[in-house]
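Risk register update: the risk that structure generation would not scale has been downgraded. Supporting records follow, first protein first.
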Amino acid sequence: MSQSTHTPLSRSQFREIDRRAIEDYGIPGVVLMENAGRGAAAIIAKLCVESPSHDAADRPVAIVCGRGNNGGDGYVIARHLHNMGRAVLLFLAAPMDSLTGDAAMNANIARRMGLTCHAIDAIEAVERHCDDLHEAFIIVDALLGTGFSGAMRPHLMPSFMQ
C-alpha cells in the first residue's frame, strides 16, 4: 500500500481557496464554516472513541475560540460535539459582544443551545480555568486563523513564548 504525501498549504493558498469558494462559486462563508466545523467535530469524536485511554469518553472537549472566523469554526465544532453527546467546554478569548458576522451568528446559536462560554480575556481568567483545560481530553485551538495579523495578546501566548 503506498502512502501519499501532502505538501501543507500556505496561508495565502488557504485564503485563495476560501476566496474562490465564496466569490467564484458563490458558496457563502457561513456554509464553509459549517462544513469545516462539522468535519472537525467528526474527526474529534472519532479520536475520542478510538483513544486507548479508558476515560476518554468521560472527559470533555475544550474549545478555545477567538473573535474571528476561526472562533466561529470553534462554535460550530462545539455545537456538533454537543449534539453527539460529548461534554464541551467553551472558552472565549474576547468579549462576546465584540464578535461579528458568521462568528457572532455561530456563537449566538451555541448560546441559545445552552452551551456555556467562559471568558478568558485576561491572564487571571485563564488561570481560573486551568483545571478545566487540564481535565479536557482534547483542546481545540480556534483562536487565530489565516486572517490574523499583529501581535498576539500575552494571555493567549503559551508560557514558553512569554
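Supporting record for the second protein:
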Amino acid sequence: MPYDFDLFVIGGGSAGVRCGRIAAGHGARVAVAEERFWGGTCVNVGCVPKKIMVNAAEYGAWMEDAAAFGWPHHRHQHHDWAKLAAARDAEVTRLSGIYGKLLAGAGVTSFDARATFLDPHTLDVGGQRVTAERIVIATGGTPMRLDIPGAELGLVSDDLFTLKALPRRAVVIGGGYIAVEFATILQGLGAEVDLMYRAPLPLRGFDEDIRGAAAEALAAQGIRLNPDVRPTRITALPDGLMVAMSNNFMREADAVFFCTGRAPNTAGLGLEKAGIAPLAGGAIPVNDDHQTVQPHIYALGDVIDRVNLTPMATAVGHALADTLFGSNPRRASYDNVATAVFMSPPIATVGLTETEAAARGPVDVYVTRFTPMRHTISKREGRKTLMKLVVCQATQKVLGAHMLGEDAAEIMQGIGIAIGMGATKQDFDRTIGIHPTAAEEFVTLRTRTRVAGVAAAAQ
C-alpha cells in the first residue's frame, strides 16, 4: 500500500528533529509531530534554561570573590529573579523556534499535535489519520514524584522554570545530577536549601572519589545535606510546607522539589495497538539498531532509557537516518560518552569509574586534589578541584577520567577525544601542559595513588 510518509517521527526533541531533518535531506518524505514544545526537554525545561540559571548563581559568588582581587564589592542585596526569568525564557523561545525552522528548511512536514498509534503503520495525529512506512518514537521522558502523602504539594524539576519568585527555603529531594544542580542553583541565588537523598553520598553511579568530593563541596556552600533518609510526608502549613523524613526529623520549606528521576514518556501512545509492550518502568525495548519488536518502528533517546543525554540522542537519530535513507548503515557508540553535572563546582567524567574498571582487572589510579589559583586568593570554601585517571595496568590505556572543579566540562570534552581514541597514560605524560591551568594536571599526574582490582591485594 502507498503510505503518506516514508518516515514519521513522534516527538520534536533532539533525537526526533535530527532524525527527521537528516532523513529528509536524504530524500525521504518525513513528518514530525510534537504536542508540547519543539526542542524537547533539553531546550525548554532542561539543559539550556538550567545552564543559564547555573551561570546566574555563579555570578553572585564571583562578585563576592572580586573584592579579594581589589574590585569594589557591589553585589545587590537581593537577586532579581524576574529579570533572569525574562532573559532565560527569551533564549528558550529563540532556540525552540530554531528547531521548527530547521525542519521546515529541510522540507519536513510538522504537526503541532499529539500522535498516537491506531495500528503498526497508522497514527492519529491531532484527529487526522496518517500512515507511514517507518515510524520513530522519540517522546523523551517526564519527571516523577515520589508516592508519598502530600506529594501533590511538591514541584517537579520542570516547575523551576515557571516559578514567579525564588523560594526563601527549599527542600530538594533526590541525589542525582538534577537534584545537586538544583540545590546549588537555588542556594547560589539566595535560598536556604536542604538536599535529601537515600544513599550515604549523592550521585549514585559516579566515581566514588567524585561523590565524596561533591558532598564536601555542597556542604561547604551551606547546603544542608540529609543523607540516608527519604521523605515520608509533605504537609501544608499556613506559611509554607513541612517535610517529614524517615529519620523522624522535619524540615520547613516554601517549596519542595522532587528531583527523583524521569520516566520514559510512553503513556497514552497506544503502543498496544502497534504490538509493542513497554518494560515495567515504561521504557521501550529495542535491539542494537533501535528497532522495536516491530522492525519498522524504532525508538530513540530517553524513551529507551539507555544513555539519557541530549548529544547521545542526537547522534543516534542522525545515525538512524543515515542507515535508513542515506545508504550509510552505521551506529552511534554508547561507549566512552562524556558527561557533566553542572552543580557548583561542576563535575565532568568520561569512561569507566574506578569500581567499574577494577572489576575488569588491575588498574592504576591517579588522584590529585588542589585549590585552584583563583581561590588561593578568594579564600572561598568548597572550591577544591579533584582530578582522577583510571589506567589499565596491562595496556596502560586510560579507561576513565573524572573531575570536580571549575571548567570541568570544558576540559573533559578534549579528554573524551583522547580516551575514545585509546590514549595511554604515556600519551598523557608526553603531552605538554598549558601553564598555569587546572587542565595541565591531567598531563602531569606522575605518582600513582593506588592500585585497584585483582592486583590490589597482592601489591
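The longest helix spans residues 81-105. On this basis the risk owner (M.S.) recommends closing the item.
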